[in-house]
Amino acid sequence: MASWQCTHIDEIAAEQWPYWAPIRHHFGIKTFGVNAWRGGPGDEVIKRHHEGDSGVPELYFVVSGNATFTVAGDEIPAPAGTLVFVEDPNAERLAQAHEANTVVFSFSGGAEGRAYESSGWDTGYLES
Fold first, then answer.
1. In the chain, how long is the greatest CA-to-CA distance?
2. Average pLDDT of 96-123?
3. Which helix (DSSP H) or strand (DSSP E) does residue 31 occupy?
4. Does the 15-126 domain belong in CATH 2.60.120.10?
5. Partner residues linked to 70 by β-bridges
6. What is the pLDDT of residues 48-97, one digit of tens each?
7. What integer is the mean pLDDT of 97-111?
8. With contact defined as beta carbons under 8 Å apart, do 98 and 124 qualify?
């Protein structure tokens, strides 16, 4: 087995899940969470949620396009290249795309003082 893997983002479940690229699941990553979210004008590329139950902070990276994040009621313009770190797990967050081909990566680890544990929500979607 090779010590590395490589793929293009468009090859990760693009047909089954056109708005979601389950990167962690694709590569079998068990040490951190990573997904990509795709959309066009008006699409929620990051669905409204909080991480209060898990206690996990999240980092978002706008790879392409343009979005606006709303975190704890604050609006954050986020053109390509923008990083948004949501340290407070209880802060509600969402991101809406403004351009075609907007892609946002989301990264997560463990809650403070704890190792990463997969929540398993992604596996449930992939197996249905």
1. 47
2. 88
3. none
4. yes
5. 75, 94
6. 999 999 999 999 999 999 999 999 999 999 999 999 999 999 999 999 99
7. 96
8. no
Any idea where the domains of the chain sit in the sequence?
A: 15-126
Name beta bridge partners: 20.
Answer: 37
Q: Which two tokens stand for residue 77?
A: 């313009």
Joined tokens for residue 19: 């708005």
DSSP SS3 for 54: coil
Is residue 101 a contact partner of residue 27, using CB atoms and an 8 Å limit? no
Whether this prediction's pTM lies above 0.90 is answered by yes
Collapsing DSSP to helix, strand or coil, 101 comes out as coil
Q: Choose among 25, 98, 96, 27: nearest CA to 60.
A: 96
Integer-rounded Cα Rg, in Å, for the chain is: 14
- HSE of 108 in the Cβ direction (CA atoms, 13 Å)? 24
